[in-house]
Amino acid sequence: KWPESKAFRDEGLGEIPSGWKGFCQSGDQFSAAKHCNKKLIGARWFVDGLLAEIGQSVNLTRLGEILSARDAEGHGTHVSSTAAGTYVANVSYNGVGLGTARGGAPRARLAIYKVCWKLSGGLCASADILKAFDEAIKDGVHVLTLSIAAASLPLYSEVDGRDIIAIGSFHAIARGITVVCGAGNDGPSPQTVKNTAPWIITVAASTMDRAYPTQITLGNNKTFQGQSIYTGKEEGFTGLFYPADGGPDATAGVCEGLTLSPNLVAGKVVLCFTTVSSPIVTQRAALLVRAAGGVGVIVSKPPNDITARCRSFPCAEVDYEVGTQILFYIRSASGETKPSSNSCGKAVPAKIAEFSSRGPNTVAASVLKPDIAAPGVQIIAATSALDTSAEEGFTMLSGTSMATPHIAGIVALLRALHADWSPAAIRSALTTTAWTSDPYGVPIFAEGDPHKLADPFDFGGGIANPNGAACPGLVYDMDETDYINYLCSMEYNNSAISRLTGKPVMCPETVSILDVNLPSITIPYLRNSTTLTRTVTNVGSTNSIYHVIVEPPTGTIVLVNPPILIFNSMTKKISFTVTVSSMHQLSAGYYFGSLIWTDGVHDVRSPISVRTAMPRLHAAAI
């Protein structure tokens, strides 16, 4: 991290908690005595594993790295300030999003464990990650947040020594430390979610309830709305130009490969089209247009994650429909346009981001992943002073890396409020109270091709609702024994499970993965019917009565027994069974529903995902 950032000041914080056993490690451009304080109470760096893994001497300093816990790139500073940065007033990025920046848990302490380095786009060695896990556990952390995911599919099993995050997180969970990880950025394709171990809280990314509209007025006074965070001065009416018109090259209007003649472009706004969603395309197009003497660019692109980031050159992004209407105008007349700058955000519905990796879980299809969603698009947070995109020490980034520390901050608050809750109880509270619709009751959508209503494979339980999670009523709790039962249900051998757990394990002959006490129900291979068991723990009023409400997936019948749960001073935990029967006559895709326990105050909602599959091979698995 960048310790000089205002986000890591320690004003108002008391003495470092006596239970803290960690320390700050000096290194290049980082002095433990100077750069740590009552906010930043730990700072370590791990590189030996990387150097051993690549098998050669590498001059990391020459690559722009700093051999210490200091952040040379900005990612670590951004995510740590999002999780627990202190209050910083009057923060904005390029003039938009003005307000007070703070982390999810602004009074929490921070310990940084740097394991990734600027090599080949960013490398994190397995040995370094595992070592950092072990040191963090010994140091006495309460929450671990990792904005790291496997580079590619397929994933390793949890007992495979190559899935270091699964192994390290298991050791942490066994000691009561909640571990929060990103789902990955390979969406919207299905089966791309990473960090799928059931003891990890896996986080999807959502947009926020704000956008940055930019009005584009044509010479015929028709106005279209684009998106941009450009806040420079407005241009008057100027000419429009589409590069693919009037020439033999039909690809000349493709944004990422614009072919521009200065004598045709000078003084004009260029329209281009792209099939690529990456913001880099818009930035490249802006550079090409500017170099050719143009005064602005309009990028027409897939209608997902549309927000142009041009800091000093007028640009806007529009969807294909708007882009086509502007193109027709150019072709029908001597096109002129007047793009206006943006000065403020506007409330819009939150959606699941297109890039956010989706379920189903490829390691264990019966374990719902991701678990929860949180804001991960256009997040303004602190960054390294070496980050060229920085503005007054802050920048705007997107990714499940940004969503993950939002959840970590909430977890820190929940742990402070409920010190006796297990990591599983915290995950349950988040999942069962999450939002599945906006404040007006409109269901949450997921970006993709096409847009669709979000389902559990997009966002788990939904978008995190911190206040709801603080008082969930009931939780689906789990401990190390439950996770071992999960590993046994996966038919991993006893020796592999014993290596992971660090203790001898003998699996029972039969254990069903459907009975793992998750706050969700996922049945990937349902043939006729199946019955599973769940146990809930009352964390609300001592004397409570809950009634069940079932919203069955299409084509299924769901029966819950008992349908009423009565809690009192003697009864704090109650088990119930859920029988799911399929009426489908053929194999089908997934259908979704929910099981809700309600006492009139709390609605404890578990998402249900069911797929009917006829082959006996799969039927035997449940």
TrEMBL record:
Residues 515-610 form the Subtilisin-like protease fibronectin type-III domain. CDD domains: PA_subtilisin_like, Peptidases_S8_3. InterPro entries: Peptidase_S8/S53_dom, Peptidase_S8/S53_dom_sf, Peptidase_S8_His-AS, Peptidase_S8_Ser-AS, Peptidase_S8_subtilisin-rel, Peptidases_S8_3, SBT, Subtilisin-like_FN3. The keyword Nucleus does not apply. The keyword Nucleus does not apply. GO terms for biological process: proteolysis. Belongs to the peptidase S8 family. This is Subtilisin-like protease SBT3.5.
